[in-house]
What does this fold into?
Amino acid sequence: MTNGGQSLQGWGFVTPALLWTIAFFVVPFLVMGAMSLATLEGRTLIWGVSLSNYAEIAEKAYIWRAFLVSLEITLTVTVVSVLLAYPLAWIIAFRVPAEWQRLALLLAVLPFWTSYVVRSYAWLLVLAREGMINQAMLGIGLISEPITLANTRFATVTGFVHFFVMLLTLTIYANLIQLSPNYRRAAMDLGASAFQTFRYVILPLTLPGVVTGAFLTFVLCIGDYVTPQILGGNSELTVPQVIMVQLGRRADFPLASALAIALMAIVTLAYIFSARWLRLDRL
Amino acid sequence: MRVLPWLYFVLAFAFIYLPVGTLVLFSFQDGILPVPPFNGPSLRWYSEVAADDDLISALANSLLIATASSAVAVVLGFCAAYGLARHVLPGSVFMRGLLIAPLTVSYLIIGLGLLIVLTRAGLGLSLLTVAIGHVVINLPLAFAIIYASMGAQQQNAERAARDLGAGEAQVVWLVTVPMVLPAIAAAFFLSVTFSWDEFIIAFLLTRFDVTLPVEIWSLLRSGLSPRLNAVGSLVFLVSVTAVILLELFVFRKRRP
Amino acid sequence: MTAPVSITSLNHWFGGFHALKDIDLDIRAGEYITLLGPSGCGKTTLLSVLGGFITPTQGTVSIGGRDMTRVAPAKRPTTTMFQDYALFPHMNLRDNVSFGLRMAGVDKSARYKRAGAMLELVSLADAALKRPHELSGGQRQRVALARALAVEPDVLLLDEPLGALDLKLRRAMQDELKSIQRQLGTTFVHVTHDQEEAMAIADQIVVMNAGSIEDQGAPARVYREPATLFAADFMGEMNHIPATAGPDGVVTPFGALPQRVDGPKAVACIRPEAIKLGDGPVQIGGAKIKEAAFFGTYIRAHLVPDVAPDVILVAHLPPGDLPETGARMTLSAEPQAFHVYAVGD
It folds into this structure.
C-alpha cells in the first residue's frame, strides 16, 4: 500500500467527525460571533459590525451585576467544593481498605448521575420552608419558626457544591491513587508527620489534578442555567439566566450572543490563569 | 484522631445522599405535598406517572435520543480516533484539538449557537435537532475515550493481521473493534447517561415533542409535588442502572 | 550510626495467607546482609516489618536493643530505599536529600550543607539543583541512597534497589553500595532475588522461601554447603542425582557417598564446576556429550552418564575445542563436593 493511499484512507475515517464538528459546532459558533455584532431594530435583525451589544452589557446594571453574581457564586462554589472534596477523596484513597475503595467511590458519586433538573428540584424539597432541614431544626428547637433557605444564593451555592463535591472527589481520588504509595512511605520514613506528608509531598503532587478539577468546576458552574434558576429563584440573576431572558422574552439574539461570547471570554481568562497547573489530559 | 476521618466520611455521605434520599422517600408519600411528615408508603404517584401520556412519551423520546445520538457519536468518534491514531495526517494535533473543543464550551452556548443556525437554516426544531446537539456534546467524549485506548499493543496486533493478509475493513472489524470494545462500551454508556440527563440543549432545540428533563422542567412550574418525586426517582433509577452496568461489565473486566 | 537488629519468633498473616513463618534472625551492627529469595517468598514483607510499614501479627523486632515492633516508621532508626526510589518529583535533589532533616527541624543552612555532603558521597554534588526526572536510573538510585542516609539511620533497608538497572550498571552499583557501607558502618539490609548480586555484596546471606528462612550464613558457605535443597538450587545451578540410604551413608549410581540422611530416599547434589574430567575418588565414569556450548571461561556441557542414562549432568569443562555431540569422556568428583538431602516420597 502506498503512503498516499494510506493517508487518503485516514482522511476517510476522520472526515465525518470533522464535518460534524465544523457544521454543528464551529459554524454555529462563528455565526454567534457575527450575531453578537449585529443589532436589532424593533423585530428586524440588522447584520453589521456594531459593538452596541457589548456596550449594553457594560451599561445596564442588571447585566453587569449578573457577571459579578456569576463570578461570586462560581468562585465560592469552586473553593468550597475543593475544600470539602479533598478530605473525602483522601479518606477513600488512604483510609478505606483497598477492596472497598471502588465501591465507596461508586457510592460517593452515584447521585452525580441524577439529572440536573431533578437534583436541583430535590434540593428545593430539602430547603423549602416546610422541607426537611427546617422541620428538623424546628424539631430540635434550634429555630422557632421556619427560615428562608430556598430561593436564595445559599440554596444555589449548596446545589452547586453538592454536584461539584462529587465531581472533584472523583478527580482528586484518581490523582491520589495514581501516586506511588512509596511517596507517603518515604515521607513518613524520613520523619514527616501525617500533616507534613500532606503539606510537603501529597498536596504539591496532586496540585495539577486539583487545579484541573477546579477549572472544570469553574467552567461548568459559570455556564449553568438550571441550578440558579430553580434554587436561586429570581432573587438575583446569573449570566446564563440573563441570556435565557433575552432569548425568551425579547428574542434578542444579538444581545444573547454577545453575553455568550463574554461568558466564554471569562472562561478563557480562567484558563489562562490556571494554565500553569492544568493537565487536561488527566481528566 | 482515628474517629475524625470516619465522622467526616459519614457526614459527607449524608450530604451527598440528602437530596436523593428525600426525593425517593417522598415519591412514596401518601399525600399531596412531598415534605415531612412522611405518610405512606404509597405507590399512587407512580401509577399517576404511568398514566400520564405526556410523561411517558417524553420518556420514550429521551430514550430514543439518548441511544440514537450516542450510537452516532460513538461511530463518528471511533472512526476519527482510528484515523488519527493509525494514520499520519498533516495537522493532526489541530484536528484532535478541534474534535475535543466542544468539551470546553458550556452546553448553553452550544445550544444557543445551534438554535441560531438551525432556525436561520429553516430547519424546524424537533427531536432531530436535539439529537444533533447531543451528538455535538458527546462526540468529543467518545473520541477522547476511544483515542486514549488505542495504544501500541493494538497497533502491533493490527500489523500482524495485515501481515497475515487481512484487508483494511477486516483489520478494523476483526482486530481493532474487539480490542477497544471496552472503551467503545464505556463511551456509549457515558454518552447515554449524559444525553438522558441533558436539559438546556433539549430545552432550546425542541418545540412540541420534548424530552423527559424538559417535561419535568415544565411540571416544576406548578410547584412541589410527589408526582415530580416519582418521575425524578425513575430518572435516577435509569441513570444508576446504566452506571452500574458500566461498572460491572466494562470497568470490572478491565482490571487484571 | 549503626545498630544490631534482632527478630524473634516473627509470624505474619495477610488474611489467611501465612506470609512470614517463625522468623528468627540476628543481624550484627555494621553488617551487610541480603535477604535472598524468589518473588513471593516474604523477603519484602520482612523488610517492611523492619521498616515499620507492617506491624507483624506475632513476634518482636528490636533494633539497637530497643523493642521497635510497634514503633511508627518515622520514629525508627531505620530508613528505606524504595524499589521505585520514591524521589519527590517536585523537589530538586538538594531538597529531596535534606527532606528528613527538614522534618527533624534542622535549619536550612545546616541541612543544605549535609545534603551537599551526601550528594558528594554519591558523586552527584554538581546536580544538586536538578529535578529527579532529569537524571538517569542509576543517578536516581544514588539520590535515593543519599536521601535515606542523610538522616544518619542505624539501619538502612534496601528494597531491590538495583532491580531497575541494566546489568553493567548493577555490577558497578553493587561495588559502590558496598564501599559506602564500609565507609559509614551502617547496618544494611538488602532485598534481592539475584543470587549473584547477593554473593557479590553481602557479609551474610539469608535465603528465604515460602515465608521461612532456608539458610543463613556467609556467601561462600551458603554456596558451597547449602543447608537445604532449596538453598542449594537457588544459589546456583545444581545437578540432582537420585540416591537411597545405605549402610555408611547413601548409595548413588556412581557409588557410595559418606554423607548421612534421615529417611530412605535422598538426592545428591553437585555443582557443574565440581565435575572433573578423568578419574577420581568418586567415579562417575564414561559419559556421552548431549550438547555443549562455549561460555568464555568454560564450556557448559550436558552429558549422559553410562551408568545412569536417565540423569543428565551439567558440567563446566575446561575451555578448549567445543566437543562434538556424542563425544565420550570420563568424569569424576571429590566426595565432599556432593551435598545430600533427604526427600519425601
